Amino acid sequence: MRRYLLLALAALITVGVNAQSKRIAYMSVTPDGGGLSLTLSTGEAVVYNFTALQTAISNISSGTVSPAERIAWNAKTIAPQTFKGGWNASTNSPALSATATTQGDYYEVTTSGTTSVVSGTSTVYSVGDKLLSNGTTWTRIAGVTLGTTIEQGKNLFNVAAVQTGKYVSNSGDGSIGTATGFNLSPVIPVSPGATYTLSGLTNGLQYSIRFENASGTYVAGSAISSTSFPFSFSVPASAAQLVFTCKFNSDATQPALVQLELGSSATAFTAYRAPVVTGVQGGALKAAELFPNSTMNGKALVTADQIANVSTLSFVSPKNLFNPASVTANSAVSTGGDIGTFSGFTISDYIPVTGGAVYTLSGTTGQKAIQFASAAKAKVGFAVTSTYPFSFTVPATATYLIFTAKRSDESVISSTLMLEAGSSATTYEAYFTPYVSGPVQAIQLAAGTKMAGKTVATTDQLPTGTPLPINYTKILAVGSSITDGVGASADSLKYRNVLQATLTAVLGRSITVVNGGLSGQNSSANLSALPSQLAANNPQVVLIEANINDAKSTTAGVGRSTSESNLNSMIDLVIAAGAVPVLWTAGPLDVTTGTGGAFSDTKRLQLNATVRKIAAARNIRLIDIGVHSAYNFLLLADGLHGNDRGHRFNAECLASGFLRN
Length: 661
Description:
Blueprint lengths: L1 H11 E3 L11 E6 L2 E6 L5 E3 L1 H13 L4 H9 L6 E7 L16 E7 L1 E3 L7 E3 L4 E4 L4 E4 L7 E3 L11 E6 L7 E9 L3 E2 L5 E5 L7 E6 L11 E3 L4 E4 L6 E7 L11 E4 L13 E4 L15 E2 L2 E2 L13 E3 L10 E7 L5 E10 L2 E2 L5 E5 L5 E6 L5 E7 L4 E4 L6 E7 L11 E4 L13 E3 L12 E2 L2 E2 L18 E6 L1 H4 L10 H13 L4 E6 L5 H15 L3 E5 L14 H17 L3 E5 L16 H18 L2 E3 L1 H4 L15 H16 L2
Helix pairs in contact: 1-2, 1-3, 5-10, 6-7, 7-8
């Protein structure tokens, strides 16, 4: 019974709408001794379909739930919510009727009242209630917060989600054709009547745009095309989304700077990023403890007991004064001490120093120059060295220094580069943001307190999980044949390679995802192989799959206690190697067909519960694909392994989990 109630909730509560397919994403539903609890992570919103939920629970209670119904529940698309404004229930303003319009539209009651014009029966509406449309009727939701505020990036075009081998016909009928060498954009939601600008495509080639309604049906007569970019256009009043040809067969590669943005003119290119939360406006977010040195908008955060009696505060500064996240590419200090443009070089930020004090630079190689600067950042001296550690005395008139952090013959900034006070090099420590420390009188911040215009979140409103390393570039993925890529029709479509391409595009640096999947092997084999995999690859992050082979119904599977022991030991090995572990749960399993018949779904659910338990106990980042995918068998190739759609689904969920760092 509990399993099917979890299924109903996972199928009927949609969290975080994906811009392309509106599928379920980013939800954590945890079975426990008292029933079910729903928690949200940053970037998530909730839509409640109460009528469908009541029907589902009724079916569960009467024992009429079938596998076909489970598939139908999970395949159902629930429209994203659209806030239409406030509603005065006393005067029915704006005027609403019993017939609702667009599914997902909602109003918030701003003035209470009693009326029958919406529901057909006399109903009391209180301030804070919501009216949610299912496309036919309005549903009153008493005092429910429909979600947090989501901020969409400027560039709406996600290059990692293009559809290869497809294009919009130039015939003007909006038809979609197939041909080698073409790419079609993902489906992109747009606002009817709004103006958008498309840029970054090859001038002289004719690219076409197809407009669709919310159901994906072509809006007749709306197709447009252009051979000159930037190209600005208005969305037809009846359109809700669009697709466009984003690569011609004569383009050698996918154009790298394609941008679709709101407005009538093109602005500087920015890479696509997934929507993110910009403010906490309600909802029960998972409790967590902020890490020391946490920041907001680049500023150190302090706790309530650190605000009063400022004179007693002390500031904790890092030993390593060099911040690798605050550098400038294609710039360097010349051997004459001047700052200039040099291709392939990287320069540090201006670092505050004490005039007359001795500092030491270590952990790097090659000839590098240092400029000493005044408070106005004018050069007052310089030094050049190719020997490390290098100790030097700052000129008495200097307030800052800035130095070459990477030469053009170095592929990346050294991971052990350190600038510290003193005349000798000590053991490397990573940079952290200075923070406030000291025993002071506690005070209580008022509810709704803001910082830089954004609502301040308390520790019970933030997700858990160890932060990923700054500027990580290599991920080792360990697990079963799912990680090995079985089920994908091409190597490029395996989730590892889709994840690699997505992170590379979004983060703007090359990311490598190494295959550590062992087909047919359980977590005991993963544990045995891990030491050599870590030594051979030296990853900064290790992505650990909940190995589905542990859930085999035969003796090839392992017990729950063995899975827990193996996972904990793997985490210990990863941390000891200086990497950050990330866990993910096993996706859907159809035991009635194909390869899935050799497995136990009960054991899969127990395995996922074990993974969640470990993640919570050890503060390990968890990407709960077992919940995200629910029982959506449409993602499976053979009852166990993901098909191309399933691999992309896994990659998108994992990418979202990585990008909420």
